[in-house]
Structures
1.
Amino acid sequence: MAGWFFQQHDGYQDIDQSSAGEAFSGGAIRDLATAIVREGIQNALDAREQTGEETPVVVKITLGKCPSLVTAHNQKWFDTLFEHVALPDVGAPNAPRSSDRNEFLLFEDFNTKGLVGDYSAPYKPGEENNFVNFMYHDGVTGKGERKLGSRGVGKIVFTMASRMRSTFAFTIRAEGDGIKPLLIGKNLLRFRELEGKLYGGRAYFLKEWREGEARQPIDDDDALADFRVSFPLKRRNEPGLSLVIPFVDPSVDANSLRFAIVAEYHYAILRGELRVELDDHGEVETFSADRLPRVGDEQVDAEVALARWAVSLPSIEMQTASPPSDGIQKLDESLVSEEVRTAITSALNHRDRVAIRVPLYIHPKDVAPVVTHFDVFLERAERHSSKPTFIRELLPVSDVRDAKSASKVRGLVVIAPGPLADFLRSAEGANHTDWSPRTDRFQERYKGRLGEIRFVATAVSRLVEIAFGNANEPVGGIATQFFSSAIPNATSTASGKAKKTSGVDPETPPDDLDPKPPALFNVEQTDDGFTIRQNDHGPASEGELPERLRVRVAYDVINGSPWSRFDEIDFDLRKPRGNVRLSASNSEIVRSDKGNRFAVESIEPGFEVTAIGFDPNRDLIVDVTATTAVESKFSEGEDDR
C-alpha cells in the first residue's frame, strides 16, 4: 500500500546533514521563485528529447489549491508526515498543520524524456541514471557531460520551497516501460527523534520498500488516478516530468515567477528553444519568442531587447585576433584591429549596437590547447553601470565575480555549446552563478592559472577600453552646457520617497565668497536643441554685450573628446536646410567651415539665437565662448580637447 517510508537510525551510523543544511540555511537562496525557475527550466532543457526536429522544450507552471476536502486530501498524501514536520528544529520552521489547505506549485516539462533509468538499480559512480540520482541521491548527478547543470544539488530548492519540505514526482519515461506513469514522493528533514525512535533525514512516498531491496515507485492505476484528481496535471500521455511542490512557500507567487521567467530565461525563449506557460489559478500567460512581455524593470527589459537583437543576427562579421596558444590568455590592444575598434566606437557613439566574436585558447590536461570562441554584444546605455549578462549555452550565469562593468555600455556575452562551454561549466559551483578555477571538476580536467576565465569575464570592459583608448575627457569654454536626455529623479527611491542625507552638502559654497557677477548670456535647453539669449538680469546696454560668440556643439561620447570625435553624419551646421536649423534675432549667424560650430555677431540688446533639430535621445554638449571681433576663429588645438 502506498505511503511514507521513514529511515530509522540506530544512533551509531554517520549523520550527514550537509545537504539539508544547505537547503535550510537562510542565505543559500535569496529568491525562491528565481531558484525554482532556474533549476526547473535547466533540468527541462537538459532532459530535452532529441527528435531531430527543432522542437522547443515546453514548461508549464501552475499555482493551484487542492480541489478536494482538506482533511481527506492531507490524510491521503501526507498522513504521518505531519508528526515529523511538526517537531522543533527539524528544518521546517513554517510547517503546515493537518487542517491547512494545500496550496501547491506544479512544474511540468514537455518534449522531454522524463526520469529515465532503471529505478531498481543500485547507484554506480559515473552512470547516467536520472531516476535514481534525481530522487534518491543529493549531491550526485546523473547528467552527461554536455548538460547545462552538473552538480546534483540544485534540486534541493524544490524541497526548500515546500513548507512541508516535500515534493512529488510524476513521470512518464521516453524509454523502458513506455507511457506507464510512475509516482514517488520525497521529504527532507534533519536528524530527529519521535516517540523514542531516531530517524535519518530522508523519507519517501512509495509503493513498497523492503529492507535491503530497491525502493518501488507507485505504478498502481487507482493511486495514479487519485493523484491526478488531487493535483490537476496538464500531462496526459506525453513523456516528461511533473513535479509537485505541496504547501508552497507564500513568497512564490505569480508575479515573482513571471519576473524570474523573463529575467533568467529570455535568451532561451527568444532563441525559440523554450516556451513557458504560467497558470495562476486559471489565468494563463504564455512566454514565447514572439510573445515575451515586459516586466516593468528597466534593466531586465533592456537586457531582453539586446538579446532579441543578438539572436536576430544571421552572422557576426567583426572578430578579434586569437591570443598566443601557449601563454596566458589576455585580451590586449594587439588583438583588436582598427576595424573592430572603429565599429565599437561608431556604434556606441551613435547609440547603435555592435557584435564581436572573440577567440581564445583553453588548455585541457594532457592534450594540445584548443581554440574556441564566444560572442560579445554591446549597446550604448545611459544610466547603466552593471556587469554584462553572461549566457553559457542557454543558462544565465548571473554572478561572475571577475566581470567588470563598462560605463554607459550594456553588454551581453554568449558562450555557445562547445569546448568553451564545457570548460566554464566545469568551473561553476552548485548554483551555476560564477566561474572559479578552484572547483574539483576544473582542476581534474584543465590546467590552471592561464587566464581563460578572466579573459571571458572582462571581455566587455576590455573591448570598450581598447576601442576608446585613453583620450582626454572633454573640456569646454566659459559657458559649456551638458544637456542630458530625460532621466528619472535621482533623489527618489523605488518607492518614490526622497532619500535622506546627513551632514553638510559639499557643493554648498562658503557664505563669505563674493557673489558671482551676472553672466552676459544664458544657454537654455529646449525639446530638441538650445537657445542662447541675453541675460535679463545682466548688462542692459549695448556696450556691455559681447562683441562675438563662438559656439560649438557635439553629442557626448563614451570616452575621449566629443569635439575630436564629432561626426558630420550626426548633423552639419553648414547646411542651412539640414536636419539642424539655426535662427537669430538682434544678431547675425556666421557659419564656420566646420560642421559643428558657428559664430554670432552684430549682437544687440535682446538678442536670441535658437538651434533646433537635434536628437532628443542623445546627450548634447554646447560650448559658448564670448570673444572680441579680432578672435574670429576657433583654434585648431581646441578641436581636439
Note: The chain has a mean pLDDT of 84.
2.
Amino acid sequence: MSAIWGMIDFKNADVNDSYTSHMNAAYQNYTFDRLDTASVDHAFFACCHQHLTPEAYHEVLPFHDTVRNILFTADCILDNRTELLTHFPELCKQTPDARILYECYIKWGQKLGDFVLGAFTFAAYHYKESYVTLWTDHMCHRSLYYSFHDNILYFSTLLSPLAAATNAPVCEKWITGCLATTSADMMVYKDLSPYEGIFQVNAAHTLTFSANKLSSHEYWTPLNLRPNLHFASIEEARQHFLTLFTDCIRSVLRSTGNTGCTLSSGLDSSSVACLTASLFREKNQDLYSYTSVPLPGFSENNSRLHITDETPGVQTICRHYKNIRPTFLPCENKDAFTELERLVPLLGYPMKSGHNLTWLDEIYRTAARDNCKLMLKGQFGNSTISYGPALTVIYQKLCDMKLFAAYRIMTDFGKNYHVPRKKILGFMAKEFYQKMLTPSLKEVTSLSSPALLKKHNTMGALKKTLRSSGGGQMDSRKQRLSFLFSPYSLTQLGMFDTSMGLLHGLLIRDPTKDKRIVEFCASLPVEYCLCDSYERGMIRSFMKGIVPDEILFDIYRRGLQSADYAYRSQLLWKKQKDTILTCIRNSELPRYTNRELVNTLLDRMYSTPEKELTQQDFIKTNVLYSCSLFLNHINDL
C-alpha cells in the first residue's frame, strides 16, 4: 500500500515547486518506507510506499510507460492477484500489485472494475492525449481527494496535505452539515469535503479530467442488484457463504509482519477473528487481537440489552482458539477529548466520534508496536453478514404481497422472543408512520447556526436522507440497498481507515466490506436475515461450530462500545476543562453555530460539578471542541 499525490497543469505551465515542497513536508507526518517521484510534460506524481506485503518492496511507482505515453501511480493491494496473473503470462508471481493493476488498466480500460478486486486508487496521465483518470475501488477502501481549478488538477490520498498545499478555505456548507447533528456521521452532502474546492472521489467511480472538462463514471452499481440468489437448503447456502467468506479473508492475509484484529464479543468481529484463527492454526501462526475495555472503577453492569465490558466474550473465543493472543486496552487517562488536538490536523476532519477515535488510535498504536502490518476488523458486518432486523423482513414480505410468509415469519419470530403478533404489528405501524410518512428531526440536536441551516437547506437534506437511507428497524428493499452502499458512510470509512493506517504504518482491512460479500448479501432473499427466526439470523446460523455458541446465541444483548464515555470524561474534566472551553470560544466557531444553545452549554460545562454532567453534555462539547480545533488548524495553514 501507499499514499499517492500529484498535479497536472493543463495550461502547460511548469510544475509548481511550492506545491511539491508543501506536499513533501506534510506527508512526513505519516508512516511510510520510501518516497519516489516522477514528472513529465507539466505533471508531477509521487508515491509514499509502505512495505506491508513482500511484493511491495519491488514496486516501481510512479511508473512511466514511455511506449504508451502514460504516467501512472497507485495506492493498491489486490485480493485476486493470482487470478489476474493468469491473464498476463509475461508477469511473474512476484510482480508487485500496482504493476498488475496497470496492466489490467491497459487491457480492460473502463471495464477494469469487472475483473479487479481489492483496495485501490490510482491516477493515470495520458500526456500525449492530455487527459487524466482517477479511480477508486468498488467500496472506497482507500480515500482519494482532488481539486480542479484554473485548469490545474491536484490529487492526494490524504486530505490534510492537499488542503495545506492548495491553501483551501473551510467549506461553509460542509461544516454546517457536520454541526447539524451530534452523531458520528460527518457527511451530509455528497462529494463535499471540509475544504472549499476539494472533493473526495466516491466509491466505484472513475473521473476523467482534461482542459476545462471533468466527466464522471460509476462503473459498478450495486443498487441494481436483485435478490435472485437461491439455494436448495439452508445448509447449501451456509456452505456457499463459508467458502466465500473464508476466501475473502484468505485473500487479504498477505503481510510482512504479524496480523492483528479488533475483537469484541459481537457477531462480526468474532466471525472474522474465528475464521482467521482457523486459517492461521493450519500454519502454526498466531492472531493478535485488541479489545477496548472500560476503566477500572466503572460500575455500570451489563444489562439485559447491553454488554458494557466485552472481556468475558473475548476470553470465551480465546479458549476455543488458543492461537489468538489477546490484548485488553483500558486506555487509562484518556477520554474522547485527549487525542483530538493531535489527530484532527492529521486526519483533516473535525472528528465527531472522539470516544471511538481514542481507543482505535490506541489499538492501532499498540498493534504497530507488536509488529502487526495487517489489521482486520468487522465494522461493516452490520450492513452485510449480520444484517437482519425482523421488522425489515416482515415488511418486505408484505410489500411483495407474500402475506402468508409474513404471517409465518412474524409468528415464529414472536415465539423465539416471546413477543405477540399484535405487539409486532404495533411496532411496525409506529415505525412506518415515523420514518416513512412523516420523517421527523425533532430529536436531532443541531449545533449549527439557524441562518446557515436555512441557507443550505441542511435539515431538508437530512430529512431526505432519513427517508431513503435505510439502516432502521424497518427498511424497504431500496432502503436496505441504500444503507449497504451509502456514499456518505463509505467515503467516511475509507477516509478513516486510510488515514489511520498511514499514521501507524498498518493496512486496515474489513472482510465484511468485501465486494464479493456485499454482492452475496444483497442477492439473497431477505428471509435469510432471519434464519431460524432469530434477528441477525444468517450469521448466527452460518457460523455455528465456528463462533462459540455463547456469542452466537446471546440474542438479546449487544456490545456497547465506549460504555464508560461519560465516566472517563468526568474523571478528567477538571484537568481539561479550561483548555477545551477556551478553544471552543474560538472566534471562528460562533459564525457556524447556534450561539444561544452553545453559550448555554458552555456555561453548564464550566459551572456544573463534573459528576453531574451527562454523556450528552460531553458529546455536544466534544463535537464543538473538534470543530474548533479544525478551524484553528485551517487558520494556521
Note: The chain has a mean pLDDT of 93.
3.
Amino acid sequence: MRRCVLFFSAGMLAVFGTVLGAPAKTAALPKGRSVITNGAFDQSKTGPVGWMTRDSGGFGDFKLTPPLRGVGPSVLTVTCKKTCERPWYLELRQRVGDQLLKGERVFISFEYKVSKGYAFHFYWQKETQPWPKMLSLRLAEPVNTWNKVQVAVPVDEDLAAGASALTFHLAEELGSVQLRNIHVIAVSPRVDPKSLPSTVEPVFGGDFYDKDWRNAALTRIAQIRQSPVRVTVHDGTEPVSGAEVRLSQLDRPFSIGIEAKAPLLVRDGFIHSRLDLLNERLGEARVHLPAYRKKVLASGMFDTVTLEAALMWQEHDLWGKDLAKHAVRLARANGLTVHGHALLCPAFEFLPDPARYRQMEAKALSSRLLLHIRSMTQEYAGLVDRWEVLFGPLAYDEVYDAAGVDLLPSAFVAANQGSAETPLLLSDVRGLMEPTSNHISETVELVQWLELEKARVDGLVLDARLTQPYTAPQAMDERLQVVGRELAGMPVYIASLELDVAREAAQAHMLRDLLISFFSHEHVLGVSFANIWEAEAPKPSAALYRADMTPKPSGEMLEKLLDETWRTKAGLTTAERGEAWIRAFHGNYDVQVTVNGRTVKELTELSIDDFENSWRALCLGGFIMGREAAKRMLP
C-alpha cells in the first residue's frame, strides 16, 4: 500500500479559511493572556521588535510607518516586487512566546489592507518539520480597504513556549499589504467558544492552497492510476511504422456516482405527501427535470446511482416501494451500477412506527429488524449491486442499545442470507468531517470487531457532506491512510459529497482538492455526489448545477476533470520499430489501429495488472487484438 505524504501530526487540529467580510464594528478582544510581543509595531529599531522579517533574494521590502501625530497604530507595509513558488521567501514571523495548554483556544486578530491583485497567506503553525498548520488563511480581498480577521482556534495538545509561530507568507503575488493591530490571546477553556467572534470560514486539518500537498497528491495519482504502455504493430515479424493508433478511454476503475431522489427520476413521481416539500422546492425549475434526468442517467458523467431515501425502511414503506424499482431499472437500463442506501439506520426515528418499535422487547425487536434486512436483500436481488447494511452505527445507537449489540454483526449475516453475492458495506457519517481523527479510529475498530464476529464486511462508506467548519484534504488524507493501513486496503467509497460554500469560485477550487485527495488513494474506489441541482438542494450553494441545469464553476470543473484531466484520449503513430508509447489511465478503452488506410476497432480493458504486465513484457496483451487485426489488413 502506497502511503500519502502527511503535512501535520496525528491528531493535530488546523484551520484554513477566507475572510467573510469584516463588519463595520467587530467584537472586542476576549479576556486572556497575550502570547506575542509588539503586535502594534510600536517598538522599532531597524524593523519591528520581536518580529523576524525575511527577504531571501530581492522579493520585496518592509516599511514601518509610525502613527500620524502619535495617534493610532503603527502600520507595517510589505511590498512584493517579485513572486516566488515558495512565498515564504518573503516572510514576517514571530514565535509564540508563552506556553499553550491543551483545551485553551488561541484567539487571533489582525487588520490588513491589500492592493488589487495581491494575495498572502497567514499561518499559525508548529515549529517542527513539516511545519503542520493549526490555522491557515489565504487573504486576497476586499482590496484597498482595511479588513479585520478574528478567529479562535482550539489548542489540541500542550505547546511549549516557542513551539509554534505566526507567519505571513508574502511572495505569492505582486502588490502590497499593510498590517496593524496584531493580537494573539490564549483564552481559558472555561470561555464558551460560541462567544468568540470569527470573520473567516474555518477549515479543519490543513490548507486548500497548499501547493506542496497538491503536487504530492498528483504524483500519487500518476503512480497508482496511470502506467506507461507500449503499443506495437507488426507485419509478421516485421515492425510497421506509421500505423495510426487511437485510444479512447470509456470508463475507469474509480466510480463517479450520483445520489438521486427517486421522484426526480420517475415521471409523475410525486405520489405521497412526504414529497410535497421537494415538489414545492422545484418550483419553476420543474421544466428542467428532463435535463436533470439526462445528466444523471444518460450523460456518461456518472456510472453509479444511489437512491437518496427510497430504500430507507420508513420511506420505502410510505412511498419508496412504488418508485424504487422503477428508478433502479431506469438506472440499470442506462448501464449504471446501483448502490443500495441503506438497510438499517439504528435510530428509531428511521423505522416505520418509532413508538411501536420502542416498546418491543429486545429479542422481538432484533428479529423484526433482521427480517426486514433479509426481505429487502431478497426483494432487490439482481437490482441492487451493493448494499449499505448499517448506516451511521456510531452516530445512531439507540436501536442496538435496545436490541443488543449483537444486532450489528447479525445484520450483516441477515443481508448475506438474503443476497450472498452482493457486496455488503458499513457506512459512517462523521469520520471524514470531525475535527480530529478519533471518530475514524472508532469506525476502524468497529469494522475489526464485526469481522471478529464473523460478519462479512466488504467495504466502508464514508460520508463527506461538508459545511462550515470544513475539513481540509490533508485531514482527509490522514484518515484515509488510517483506514487503508488498519483495514488492509478495504475498499472505501466516499458518499454524499457536497461542499456548501457561498463563493462559487472557492467551491470549485476546494472541491477539486477534495477529489484529488480521494483519487490519490488506491483503496478508494469511488465518489458519490449529493444534491447536484440547485432546485433539489436544501442548500443551493452546495449544488454543482444551477436551477436551469447550467453548470456552476464547480460543475464545469468536475466535467473537465472527468472528461479531460483524468481520461486518456490519444492518437499515436508507430515509429520505425513499430512502437508507440503513452502514459495512460487505467480503464476500458476503445482501440483503433489504422494501417494503409484500413481501420480495425477493438475494445480492451487496460487494468492495473495489464499495465504492469505490459511494462514487464514490453507488449500489452490488450493491444495484441488490434495488432493482429492490423496484420491481416496488410497487403
Note: The first helix runs from residue 211 to 225.
